[in-house]
Sequence to fold (661 residues):
Amino acid sequence: MRVQDGRVDFKKDGDIESRNVFFVDANFFSLFSFPLLRGDANTCLQQPHTVVLTKDEAEKQFGTADAVGKVLTLAEGKTFVSYEVTAVTENCPQNSSIQYKILLPIRQAEADMQNNDNWFSYFLNTFVELEERVNPVTVSTQMQRFYEKDARGAFDAMTLKFGGEKGGDMGTYALQPFADIHMSTTFPAQNGLEKASNPIYAYILSGLALFVLLIASINFVNLTVARSVRRVKEIGIRKAIGSDRRQLIIQFLGESFILCGIAFVLAIALAQLILPVFNELANKKLAIGYLVDARLITGYIALFLLTGLLAGFYPALVLSGYSPVETLYSRFRLKGKGYLQQSLVVLQFTLASFLIIGTFTIYSQFNYLVKADLGYDDHDIVLLDKGNMTHQDAAVFKSELLKYPDIVSVAPKNGGSWATMAQLENDSSIRFAWETVDESYLATLKIPLVQGRNFSVTHPGDSAHAVLVNEAFVKEAGWKDPIGRQIVFNFQNNKTFEVIGVVKDYHYAALNNKIAPQLFTMNNANPYGTFYIRISPRSATRSLAYIQQQFKQFFPFSPYAPIFKNEVNQRSYESEARWKQIILFGAILTIFISCIGLFGLSVLAAEKRIKEIGIRKVLGASVQSIATILSMEFVKLVMIALLIAIPLAWLAASKWLENYP
Fold:
């Protein structure tokens, strides 16, 4: 069963709106268990001009979920066609990778079926249900064998056409378990599938939770030992009346488990309370009901037992070992130098310092991402999509826009991201981003040339034979003098283009992508798909009104959806912005809990040195001097923690920053 994402224009009450849709095979509901509210799952997608809506989408379109038999008007080519609603389903579950609102029968042209080049087009999600006894590895092997046999000729022809080594690696067709697409970094959910997640984020959240739990357990140990001074008589009396050490250990472990149980219940209540905030912060739609799972519940019980045991075992051993004679006759004093407690504090502040440095790194990186020089000016640029536009139509629309005084410049460009390969003079091949622009593109984005000249209307041959390349292209090609070099497009009947200029490298993709080779052409055979419109500062309202007026006049059957280029760029870093807030919250929480632990150790130290403090005060020591003496010990511990945390945090930060070339 195949699933292909796409966009279709909808017409309603004279307005045109472009919507995301899924094109699916007729057996979609046979494979997936999305419940239908109305309609027949077996027949609802069999006819070509049918549409299936979710409950929310049906209510949006018709004001009711009872929409079967109603009609929507959708674009097909340059005309609009009526589609009948044949089924209404429940809304997709929040945790599903398949998030549809509109389903359409998949469009399959006979020419596509006969085109062997489609072996190498990865635009479809294909789902296969195997019988339980079938080995997926065996099926994958058979798929690969069939692929290599059937597609070898097409692959060799494509290699000859685009350049490359004949008989080279054709790639691999294999099966992937459906559940794996959520966390896979090799083959994540894509082509319309959603909810893909990088496992590193799960590791970060798990590590953050582990840090907090570990620090809280350390606090419990330190505070319990510090508070033991006030319980020495209780322990002495219990031992005097016959309690042995085993009974006392059980008592103190029981107290630990009771406190952990109360904390566990409060944690669940607190999680339910702040879950909406976390969902907003992390851009998730989690529900507390997801925790009701047999494996998770087993894990919670194990975590509860482990936490209670680790937090209570050491204090139980310490408290149960007190001598009844010393405790009852006030001869008791805490023995030892507290190396374990000091080590625990060092561990606490190592973790806290690690998080602080990590937070600072993420903050600095995010600020760099949003403030870095992109190599072009993305302010006051409006992006306006209009697919498959001829150069002549684009020139007329551009001319009309430039009549408005607040529109500074207009530059058409191909829609989406194009990439291809071409052959250099030494017969080597190079892969690059392929941009179709006009002579105004560089000036509109304020991108400088470093060599040669720009496209020009005074050179009519530029559209047929000239190209611009960026510095990364020149470096990849190994050219020292790029002007006048020839580039051969094998797939265009070995058509040759001449390099007339070199564009300074700019970040045409997000900053976590290395600047790759880029080539610009004005080839009339390539359609335009997007307008870059630079407007005067502080003229957005009136400029957009004029742009809308002209767009509706020129393209009455196309959706109008302008967006500013700097907003598009900022959306590329929404993930970093969310993680900045999450890590900041975790660091603050960790520091707060660590300070509580430090307070516990301070109480313990003061209790152990209470006679020394009294003697110093009798001899005239001030409160400030005594506080300094007591504090120096903890300052040393914090400094040791910093010395440990800094190299660890540096290694972790360096690893994370590898994602940003």
Observations:
- The longest strand covers residues 2-12.
